[in-house]
Structures are given as C-alpha cells and as structure tokens.
Amino acid sequence: MDQLLIYIDITGTFAFAISGALTGMNKKLDPFGVFILAFITAVGGGTLRDALISSRTAFWLIDPEYAYIVLGGTVFAILFRERMNYLKKTIMLFDSAGLGLFTIVGVEVGIQNDLNAFACLAIGTITGTFGGVLRDIFVNEVPVIFRKEIYATITILGGAIYLILRQIQINPIITQIIPIITIITLRIFAVYYHWSFPVIKFIDKENS
Amino acid sequence: MDQLLIYIDITGTFAFAISGALTGMNKKLDPFGVFILAFITAVGGGTLRDALISSRTAFWLIDPEYAYIVLGGTVFAILFRERMNYLKKTIMLFDSAGLGLFTIVGVEVGIQNDLNAFACLAIGTITGTFGGVLRDIFVNEVPVIFRKEIYATITILGGAIYLILRQIQINPIITQIIPIITIITLRIFAVYYHWSFPVIKFIDKENS
Amino acid sequence: MDQLLIYIDITGTFAFAISGALTGMNKKLDPFGVFILAFITAVGGGTLRDALISSRTAFWLIDPEYAYIVLGGTVFAILFRERMNYLKKTIMLFDSAGLGLFTIVGVEVGIQNDLNAFACLAIGTITGTFGGVLRDIFVNEVPVIFRKEIYATITILGGAIYLILRQIQINPIITQIIPIITIITLRIFAVYYHWSFPVIKFIDKENS
Fold first, then answer.
1. What is the ipTM of this complex?
2. Are A203 and B82 an interchain contact pair (Cβ–Cβ within 8 Å)?
3. pTM given for the model
4. What is the pLDDT of residue C204?
5. Which residues of B touch A200 (CB under 8 A)?
6. What distance in Å separates the CA atoms of residue A186 and residue A154, rounded to the nearest whole number?
7. Which of B152, B147, B150, B146 is nearest to B127 (CA)?
8. CA–CA separation, B129 vs B19, rounded Å?
C-alpha cells in the first residue's frame, strides 16, 4: 500500500476500535472484553476480506502494529468516555469514519489483487461494513447494515466514486479524499435526517 | 465444472436468493437489505467452502455473474411476492431446491480438490446448508440445520448417493439428478409429515 | 506436529466435543444436531485459525480422524449424560480442558508458520476460544469469552508462558504441560471463586 493509504487504514482502525470499545463499555463488558470487542470491530472487515482472497493471510497476523492501534483506541475511549455524551451518536460518528476509510482500503486491495470492478466494490463494502456487523452480532443487536439508513448503498456509492476517480488518474490524494468524505457525510446526513428506502409492501397471508 | 453442473449451480443460486429475499421482505428490510440477505443466503455456503480450502478465492469474487443471478432472484421474489401464499412453505420449497443443488456442487468441488470421501461429504453439506444458516442467524432465527426435520441427515445421505453413483460411473446426468431429487423430495416430505429423530432424554439435575 | 502435540490436540477435540454435545442435549437438539454442535465446538477454533493463515486448508478436511473423535465425544456425552450432574459446571470443566489444550496447539501452529510473537498468541487464543464462542452463538447464549471470568486473559497468559518456556528450550513435555495446567487450573478457580475484572464505570447520559 502507498503511504497515504496506510494512514487511512490506521485512522480507520482507530475509529472502529473506539466504536467497538464504546459499545463494549455500554454493554458492561470488563476491560479485556472491551478490548476484544474493539479488536473484532476494527479488524473484522479486513479479516473477512483476507479470508475470501486465497493468497492473503489475515493482515493483523503479519503486522502486529494493528493490535497497538486498537489498544490505543480502546484506552482513548476509556479515558474520554465521560466526555462522549449522546453515546449512540458518538458510536455512529466513529463508525461512519471507519466505514469511509476502510471502504477505500478494501477497494484498493481488490484492485491490487486483480479483481474485476464488481468484486472490488464487494470487497470494499465487506472491508468497510463487516467489522460493525460483527460488533453488533456479538452484542446481540441488529447488524448496522440491516438498519434503515441506507448504509450499504452509501458504501457502494463511495466505492464506485473511488473506482472512477482512480481510473481517470487524477491526484491520488483527491482520489482518496473525495469518496471518504462522501461516505462519511452521506452517512451522517442519513442518520440525522432519517433517510431510508421505502420498505416493500408485503402481506403475509399466513398471518392475516 | 462441467456444463451441467454450472446450470445446477446457477439454479441453486437463484433458488437460495429467492428464499433469502422472501425472508428479508418478511423481516421488513429495505430493498437493499433484501438484496444483501438474498446474496448472503445464495453465496454463503460456497463462500465458507472456499475459505476452508486454502487454494480457492471466493467464487463470486472471480465470477461477477453470481451477483446478477442473485439480483434476478431478488427481483423475481419482489415481483411475485403476492402470489406466494403460505410464505414459510414457499421459503422452505426454495430452500430445499437450493439445498439439493448446492450439496452436489459442493461434493464435486471436494472431489476436484482431491479431498477424501468424508471431507467431500462435509464440504458438500457445508455448501448446501451454510447459506441458510447465515440467513437465519442474520435475522435472529434458530438456524434451519438445528430445527427438527432431519435437515443435515438428508443432505449427507444425498451427498453419499452422489459419491457412490459417481464412483460407478454411470451417465453423469443420472448421477447428478438422482441425489438432487432425493434431497429435495425427502426434505419436503420431512417438513410435511414432521419427520424427526427422537430427542435424547436428559434430565438436568440443576433445574429439577 | 510432534507426537505429544497430536495427543494434546486429540484430547482437546474430545473435551470440546463433549462440551458441545452436552450443550446440544441441554437445548433439546436431535442426535444429529447434538453431533453437529459437538463438531462445530471441537473444530471451530482450529478452522478459523486455518482460514486466517492463507496456506492452510482446514485441518479436518485433510484428517478425517477428527470426525471420529468428535463422534466418540458425542457418544460418550450421550451415554454418561445422567452421571453428569450439575451440567453447567461439567460443561465448564470440559470447556476449560479444551481451552488449555487447544491454546498450546494454536501457538505452536503460529510458530511453525513463522508468525511473530503477538500473532502466535492471537492465533493460540483464537484456536482455544473460538469453538466455544461458536457453540454459544449457535444456541443464542452470550459467548463465553465475554462473560465475567477473565477467560481470554487466562488464555493469553498460558500462551505467553508456553512461548517463553519454548524459547528457553527445556524439556518439551514440561514446556507443554505447565501452560496447559495453568490455563485449566486458573479457569476453574476463576469460575469457582468468581474472579473478574472490575467493570469500567460509565454513565450513559442519554439514558440518565
């Protein structure tokens, strides 16, 4: 990965670790459980990505630095927990940051493994979303991706913008910043203004 | 894979996508959530299979066609949703079709990766069942494989029939059709007539 | 693996299979469901380990013997179920045995795949704990690793002792026995005496 992408990856890891640690404290896990939930949230998406691509060993088994970043995010979340009013919104903010950052990392890994455009988008979406899905499954909540606020749609849109910008080869910083900002902004707006797709009307005749 | 097996694989993908899409609509997911649940259901079994075999990258990362098949199944389920009375039975029917079709695909992948007979059966069972297990876990229901109607037993039986027929090298169409029909028929009969194994009597002395 | 480690691996498989089978009977699964839950519990940790390391195919696809060991553990649990009073304690005992045994196996697999010390500990912890986590998720209980009794801490401590003893190259039997005994003993003491870390105080201002 180039230098900029490494910073993006580290920042995403830090952000997801905080969202996981806050969730763990909210569920009254002990400090070690808080760290483990932060770890699962932060590395879950990239781990599934690496499991799906046969040639890749899970990245955090090769670079132990990720564990320190997660530890840093966990300690940060513990120290500043009292300043984080409106917990669910704070978790959502850090989750959105991680989502935007990791999606781009994932799409780029897809490109570097010679995957086709659809597969790059899919692997980007998985990298961006699966850590949060695992976090929610482990604490028995509905996975964030199935909640109303067009979570996956935004992720795929951001990934597609990245693919297109990268194709036309403009400045790499712009190529990476625009889709990241797009995902984070749209996600926050979607939650704030309750954007959602209409549900398909469906009358189950068994129960009516 | 030979041509016939590709058709079987496509039909299984379509059937599981419908079962996942119907489940998603039943759980009031938005259209994108319905598609994602259909996708997870349709590719989940083959994905775990490919993750377990070290040399294989997840098949749908290589062949983007699978996403279109899932999209087709999802649209089909949405369009014809009002004609599908008795939803749970309809889901079960499509689930059974996917089960029979994918089990054979999975056993064949095992054979082509030089796995032993036990491993071929196991990988066939995983390919056939795991998509439905994921579908159920994601919507918080008891995984279909742990429900009463001898689900896994039928799958393994069908896989074993395929292994034997393939060994004695009769016509490949017959070799594939017989176990598929066996699995689908037995599964439907098992649900319809409530076939089940007796539960082991077990008195927990803590609670009595 | 050397001969001694193979025995440790077999014993761990047997112990986890019993813990899974007892859990399955307690949840009123049919005999086949009991076997499948025993199988998932017994091979789950090693399977995730092998999925994370790109060069490894899941061990039980290569050695079908594991299925027989799981079958043996399941039959054992069924036959002696009435002698196992105080079920939760019995499940905990076999879970602890599997935990101690598998952690060492996992750390050793890490060493033999040239992973760094952190990664060896992580892969050992995953090998030791993930089967039990899957068992609990499948029957809808809080995963054992998130319960109070410092489960993961003990595992990591035992793995670290193994790494150190192995480094100083004393007798291999001692190198393996000491951390196994440490993990099992500490785990049982932790449950018996309710050892736990204090939970971090955290006032959610949204709900107060």
1. 0.82
2. yes
3. 0.88
4. 61
5. 25, 31, 34, 78, 81
6. 7
7. B152
8. 13
